[in-house]
């Protein structure tokens, strides 16, 4: 895109303006300011140009359940991202669905969205398997409540792993600035409060299962990779 090309050119010129060569430095800064004025690019816009958005392919009907929010928060912490939700009409399902959108620096947003997609599918699978393991005489609503509690525990297990990898959550200031500007006029994310069981055994089972999911985030230079064990 033309706009992206111009932003990159300005960034390169600003890097050159830090040169020890005074003549080269002055010319680069002059040219950078000239381009910014010509194209109406503010310092704020330039600063936020490295922030990206990535929409998750994982969709939910109308609202996110609280156990899905637990997982969403864990992924945000892992990649130093923020997130918001958008509503989209799915023509195949003929109904409105909600999709999370991650905001982060560089590739972080895209990787966070992918990671959420993979772990969300695993969370759903684990919840269904736990649901199927419950005694057949258990009432249907009690089964659902226990499964919801299991899913919350599963997400907490993931979050505990994240805390070991990232003890203190750090969201870059520029990401926070972009996020606040983007969501200034948006309503808060609507979540669905899942009914849970008062029996904490399901939560403990979920915590144990979630803590066994292997997540690693090797970083080599600016390249970020995510490895998930299946």
Walkthrough of the structure:
By secondary structure, this protein is an alpha+beta fold. The protein folds into two domains: 40 residues, no CATH class; 180 residues, no CATH class. The strands form four sheets. Strands 1, 2, 4 and 5 form a four-stranded antiparallel sheet that branches. α1 packs antiparallel against α2, α4 runs parallel beside α6 and α5 packs antiparallel against α6. The longest helix has 26 residues. The protein is elongated and about 80 Å long. The C terminus is likely disordered.
What key phrases describe this protein's structure?
230 residues; alpha+beta; 2 domains; four-stranded antiparallel β-sheet; two-stranded parallel ribbon; 8 helices; 10 strands; disordered C terminus
Could you provide a short overview of the structure?
The protein is α+β, with helices and mostly antiparallel strands and 230 residues long. 54% of the residues lie in helices and 17% in strands.
